[in-house]
């Protein structure tokens, strides 16, 4: 009897156990480490996009090729004798100018825009993700501003939506339409940010601080608007008017991301990775341009003794910095652009009157190129100088002299955010301004040349080049180099990537055919009016 009870109870127990398991089947049989749209935290995507904005993970090829190889020497911030630095000699390396747009699996569309679009799509209509959603909208405009400034018309409205819309051949939108939409989207995002709402935990720039993102967004609107001063001055003025009094208020609002050396090429400061010679000869052969150094010298600028040093690398094959480098302002010497190592008189750097030795030319101060150092994105100094330009140009937003003062002071004192070793005191900045007061008769030149100096010191040569194309300041003298492809003029845009002719041929051809001046280094984007 006892045995029969046991034998009958076992099937009953198994049935009860199976029934209990079935009720919790999904939870028990779901891998807790797996992610779906339902349980994935989109904050991780924000981190990825922000890091991507500082440079791609493929050995920072977008930074190396677009920001440094092309933009920095074209705008005469840096100079080099390296033959593959096409921007220094107005040569076209199609794969280099295409690097920022990207190839398969890298570049701005893939590493920056795609994760941002994913955030926007997956957080839409979710109040618990409201601030993350709006920060992503601001980031989308920040990312697209740089892409369209480099190339002109480009995929915008449909970009990054292939997964959601199955449109794998996005059309190229007109830059004017892109700018109008970016201005509206950022404005709406700023208005929708909620100080009582969610904190974007994946935000590396402001740690989810909504007040700072509001200032950032309004400052971005200011920059977007001022880009249109020649193409659409009425729109530019209207949008500037909307953000007066709402932009950044001090260097504490500066937007930057610090590199993380422990993460290797995925998280290291991108400019530093290149300029420290991790992948080439840049550490020894890339110098500050004599145009920039001579301007700092002529103005007795306190930044000269902080951002430039000589004798940093003793030899061509050395990547070890000389601890006895020379930061004496009197000893700084910029290298002329458009020189090489050909051995030909007039072209070879060794035949230039300025030449003594390569280490005698000025390199960036080591404090500026630390692997864990900051990549600056947008700063208070830029904001104030843009407001000075708007006040001088349109007569709105206050006194251009005051904005100029505040912008230049910020552009000088912010250097301490790189490292205390290159900080400059408020008193020294004030002394400089006393000796270089704002002159209304030369206002546009003074304001925009200071903007050039600031963005050069930020190593943001993308922005320096865009601002120069808009304003024409400073008045740069083009280099003369044999067989250049621009007829001896400074380049004005990047050609579209040739790969687009295969992957998106119809839309690519229509856009390429429509570029004013041609799809080449001499063509112009819409806002870049003669």
Describe the structure.
It is a single chain. With 530 residues, this protein is mainly α. The protein has helices spanning 2-23, 25-28, 43-53, 61-74, 94-97, 107-123, 130-151, 162-165, 175-192, 210-226, 233-243, 270-275, 282-285, 290-298, 304-307, 380-394, 400-413, 426-435, 443-457, 461-471, 500-503, 505-513, and strands at residues 78-80, 255-258, 286-288, 308-309, 363-364, 374-378. Helix 4 (61-74) runs parallel beside helix 20, helix 10 runs antiparallel to helix 11 (233-243) and helix 16 runs antiparallel to helix 17. The protein starts with a helix and ends in a 17-residue tail after the last helix.
Structure summary:
This protein is mainly alpha-helical and 530 residues long. It contains 22 helices and six strands.
Helix and strand arrangement:
Layout: H1 2-23, H2 25-28, H3 43-53, H4 61-74, E1 78-80, H5 94-97, H6 107-123, H7 130-151, H8 162-165, H9 175-192, H10 210-226, H11 233-243, E2 255-258, H12 270-275, H13 282-285, E3 286-288, H14 290-298, H15 304-307, E4 308-309, E5 363-364, E6 374-378, H16 380-394, H17 400-413, H18 426-435, H19 443-457, H20 461-471, H21 500-503, H22 505-513
Antiparallel strand pairs: 1-3, 2-6, 4-5
Helix pairs in contact: 3-6, 3-7, 4-20, 6-7, 7-9, 7-10, 9-10, 10-11, 10-16, 16-17, 16-19, 17-18, 17-19, 19-20
The neighbouring-strand order within the major sheet is 1-3
The main β sheet shows up as: 2 strands, antiparallel
From the helix content, strand content and strand pairing, which structural class follows? mainly alpha
Give the fraction of residues assigned to helices: 40-55%
Radius of gyration: 26 Å
How many separate helices? 22
Shape: globular
What's the order of the H and E elements?
Answer: HHHHEHHHHHHHEHHEHHEEEHHHHHHH
What is the first-to-last residue Cα distance? 104 Å
């Amino acid at each position: 009897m006892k045995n029969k009870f046991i034998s009958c109870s076992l099937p009953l127990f198994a049935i009860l156990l199976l029934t209990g398991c079935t009720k919790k089947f999904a939870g028990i049989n779901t891998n807790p480490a797996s992610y779906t749209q339902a349980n994935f935290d989109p904050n991780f995507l924000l981190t990825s996009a922000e890091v991507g904005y500082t440079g791609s993970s493929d050995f920072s090829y977008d930074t190396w090729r677009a920001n440094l190889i092309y933009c920095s020497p074209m705008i005469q911030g840096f100079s080099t004798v390296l033959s593959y630095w096409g921007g220094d000699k107005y040569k076209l390396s199609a794969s280099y100018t295409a690097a920022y747009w990207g190839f398969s699996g890298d570049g701005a569309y893939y590493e920056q825009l795609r994760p941002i679009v994913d955030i926007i799509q997956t957080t839409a209509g979710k109040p618990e993700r409201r601030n993350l959603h709006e920060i992503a909208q601001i980031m989308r405009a920040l990312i697209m501003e740089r892409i369209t400034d480099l190339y002109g018309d480009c995929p915008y409205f449909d970009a990054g939506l292939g997964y959601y819309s199955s449109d794998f051949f996005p059309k190229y939108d007109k830059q004017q339409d892109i700018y109008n939409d970016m201005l509206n989207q950022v404005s709406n995002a700023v208005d929708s940010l909620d100080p009582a709402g969610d904190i974007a935990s994946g935000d590396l720039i402001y740690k989810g601080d909504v007040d700072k993102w509001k200032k950032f967004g309004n400052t971005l609107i200011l920059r977007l608007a001022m880009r249109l001063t020649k193409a659409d001055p009425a729109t530019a003025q209207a949008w500037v008017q909307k953000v007066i009094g709402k932009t950044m208020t001090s260097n504490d609002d500066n937007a930057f991301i610090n590199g993380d050396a422990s993460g290797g090429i995925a998280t290291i400061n991108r400019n530093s990775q290149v300029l420290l010679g991790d992948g080439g000869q840049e550490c020894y052969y890339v110098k500050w341009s004599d145009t920039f150094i001579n301007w700092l010298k002529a103005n007795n600028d306190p930044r000269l003794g902080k951002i430039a040093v000589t004798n940093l690398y003793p030899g061509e094959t050395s990547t070890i910095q000389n601890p006895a480098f020379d930061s004496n302002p009197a000893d700084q010497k910029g290298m002329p652009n458009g020189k090489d190592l050909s051995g030909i008189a007039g072209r070879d750097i060794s035949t230039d009157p300025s030449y003594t030795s390569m280490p005698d030319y000025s390199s960036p101060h080591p404090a500026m190129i630390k692997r864990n150092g900051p990549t600056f994105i947008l700063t208070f100094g830029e904001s104030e100088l843009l407001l000075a330009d708007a006040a001088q140009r349109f007569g709105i937003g206050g006194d251009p002299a005051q904005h100029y003062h505040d912008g230049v002071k910020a552009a000088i004192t912010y250097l301490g955010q790189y490292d205390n070793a290159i900080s400059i005191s408020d008193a020294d900045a004030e002394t400089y301004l006393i000796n270089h007061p704002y002159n209304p008769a030369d206002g546009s030149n003074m304001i925009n040349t200071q903007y050039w100096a600031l963005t050069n010191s930020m190593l943001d040569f993308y922005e320096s080049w865009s601002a120069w194309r808009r304003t024409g300041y400073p008045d740069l003298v083009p280099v003369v180099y044999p067989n250049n492809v621009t007829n001896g003029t400074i380049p004005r845009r990047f050609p579209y990537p040739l790969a687009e002719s295969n992957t998106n041929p119809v839309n690519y051809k229509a856009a390429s055919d429509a570029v004013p001046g041609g799809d080449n280094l001499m063509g112009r984007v819409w806002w870049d009016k003669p």
